[in-house]
Amino acid sequence: MATWKVIETVSGNVEAASGLAAQDRPSKHEFLVWEGETADKAVALKSAEKADPRVDLEWMRIRHEMDLEKMYDLCFRNGR
Asked: Which of 25, 26, 28, 61 has the highest local Cβ count within 10 Å?
């Protein structure tokens, strides 16, 4: 078991960190959504989803795919 922190950044992204990566977090422009002992990152994210409905894993996946589509459009469809 490790101590995990689930953090929301100003841009709205959600990250899970443990160990040294979580030591100095959240920073000035981040917000702690959930902190606790879990076996792995997936359990930490699920616990955060239960604690705060803004942490919706399905929506995060959809938003990430939308961001990838925008990046593709910028890089390949605009002549770059």
From this structure: 26
Task: Give the Cβ contact number of residue 16 at 10 Å.
Answer: 22
List 31's β-bridge partners, or say none. 8
Alpha-carbon gap, residue 79 to 17, rounded angstroms: 38
Angle between helices 57-72 and 41-51 (to 10 degrees): 110
- Residues of the domain holding 69: 2-77
pLDDT at residue number 68: 59
Q: Which residues contact 14 (CB under 8 A, 6 or more apart)?
A: 6, 7, 8, 33, 45, 48, 55, 60
- pTM greater than the 0.70 cutoff: no
Residue ranges of the chain with per-residue pLDDT less than 70: 53-80
